[in-house]
């Protein structure tokens, strides 16, 4: 193994848009829930201002672009509607692993690198996604960290630091973060990750990812492997 393979102990990947292909269903549903309360946001607007964030936080950010004095009760009602709609849609929507996700996980395992999925979803939603794909902690991945597991969400580094602590990893220099949104990149930077890699398979375009100054931008999970060597 090369030097980086010996140094890097963990790769932290976002879920929807990065390792899971659900055709932006979560943000389409977020848009639907918000717009049912009298707004008229486009999907690109929702993706620009909400991608990668804990979903209540995403609602606040999206509406905050047009309103400054947000009513907490209204945010709570929109968030609950979003959760109800998403549960209904996730029960039947086509959800598949991103291209080469299984091969990517297997390659990381063969290098002795831990695989952690982290997400702005709550634990219930994230575990339902895992079940739909047949992915299991301890078999396909080493850990799942959700917005429910930490006090602060992206761009704060808490989810990555939580995973590092779990596996006794002392320095972000031994961690790589991969995500499909600018806030994923910022999260990794705030955790001091050795590499922060954007991927173009999800919410943000290459140009939007570049705004967060990642170390690399890739189009496929397998493109990450050479960067580790």
TrEMBL record:
GO biological process, one term: DNA repair
One Pfam entry name: Hydrolase
Any Gene Ontology CC annotation: cytosol
Record GO terms (molecular function): phosphoglycolate phosphatase activity
Keywords: Hydrolase
UniProt keyword ATP-binding present: no
Residue intervals passing through the bilayer: none
InterPro entries cross-referenced by the UniProt entry: HAD-like_hydrolase_sf, HAD-like_sf, HAD-SF_hydro_IA, HAD_sf, PGP-like_dom2, PhnX-like
UniProt superkingdom: Bacteria
NCBIfam families, per the entry: HAD-SF-IA-v1, PhnX-like
UniProt xrefs under PANTHER family: PHOSPHOGLYCOLATE PHOSPHATASE (PTHR43434), PHOSPHONOACETALDEHYDE HYDROLASE (PTHR43434:SF19)
Name the record gives this protein: Phosphonatase-like hydrolase
Organism: Sphingobacterium paludis
């Amino acid at each position: 193994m090369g030097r980086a393979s010996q140094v890097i102990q963990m790769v932290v990947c976002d879920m929807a848009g990065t390792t899971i292909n659900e055709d932006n269903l979560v943000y389409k549903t977020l848009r639907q829930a918000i717009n049912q309360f009298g707004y008229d946001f486009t999907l690109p607007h929702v993706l620009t201002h909400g991608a990668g964030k804990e979903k209540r936080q995403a609602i606040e950010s999206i509406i905050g672009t047009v309103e400054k004095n947000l009513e907490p009760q209204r945010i709570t009602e929109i968030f609950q509607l979003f959760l109800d709609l998403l549960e209904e849609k996730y029960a039947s929507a086509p959800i598949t692993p991103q291209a080469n996700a299984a091969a990517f996980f297997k390659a990381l395992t063969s290098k002795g690198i831990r695989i952690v999925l982290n997400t702005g979803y709550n634990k219930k939603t994230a575990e339902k996604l895992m079940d739909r794909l047949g992915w299991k902690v301890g078999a396909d991945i080493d850990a799942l960290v959700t917005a429910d597991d930490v006090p602060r969400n992206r761009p704060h580094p808490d989810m990555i630091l939580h995973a590092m602590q779990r596996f006794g990893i002392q320095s972000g220099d031994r961690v790589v973060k991969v995500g499909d949104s600018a806030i994923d990149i910022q999260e990794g930077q705030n955790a001091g990750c050795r590499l922060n890699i954007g991927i173009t398979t999800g919410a943000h375009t290459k140009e939007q990812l570049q705004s967060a100054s990642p170390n690399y931008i890739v189009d496929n999970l397998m493109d990450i492997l050479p960067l580790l060597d």
